[in-house]
Amino acid sequence: MTAHPASIGDQMSDSASRRQAPRATRTAVADADTPGFIAIARVVRPQGRKGEVLAEILTDFPTRFRDLQRVFIDAPDSDPGAVAVEDTWLHKGKVVLKLGGIESIDDADALRGRLVLVPAEERVALADGQYYVWELVGCRVMVETGETSKPLGIVTEVERTAGADLLHVAYGARDILIPFAKSICKLIDPGSGLIVIEPPEDLLDLNRE
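Now predict its structure.
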C-alpha cells in the first residue's frame, strides 16, 4: 500500500497555505506480509555492469537516500533480508543503488520488482498536522452534526490534488470524496483509526448526486 504524507489542508488558495498544509507522503507500508517496514523504492532493472539497480522512488523524501547505510529487500517466501548500501545516486527521477553482495547484472536482475524497505521506526518525522497516507487509509470516518455523531465509512484512498487532498471514503458500493481540510476534519487520530468530520450541509448531498 503506497502511502504519501497527507497534509490537512486549510482550503485557502494561496501557495503558502498549501505548503503548510499536511500532505500525504509516498513512503509506503509495503504490504501485510512485511509488518514493521515501509517501502522507499521499488527495483526497476539492472543499471550498469557491477550489480547496480535502478529503482522507482516511493518516498517524498529522496534526500534520505544520501545517508542510507542499510536497507531490507522484500522476499516472497521469507522475511525481508538486510543488505548494506554501498552507494546511491539520483538519476532521471529515479535512484541508483549499489547494494552489498549484488555484484553482477544477473544478481541485479533477480531483484526486479522487489521493494526496498526500511524499518517503520526510521520513517521521516512529519511536521504537526501532517500524516502518512498509510496512517489514514483504513480509518473510520464519523460525521458530527451538532450533538449527533454517525458513521460514514472507511478511508480507502487519499487522492493528492493541487489544493486539499481528498479522502475516498467507502459508502456502500461507492466512494464519497471528503476534502482533507481543517474546516472539515475536526479530529484526526490515526492511532485510534478515527477521523471525525463536520462537513458543510451540501457536501454529502453533492457526493450522492
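Confidence is low (pLDDT under 50) at residues 9-33.
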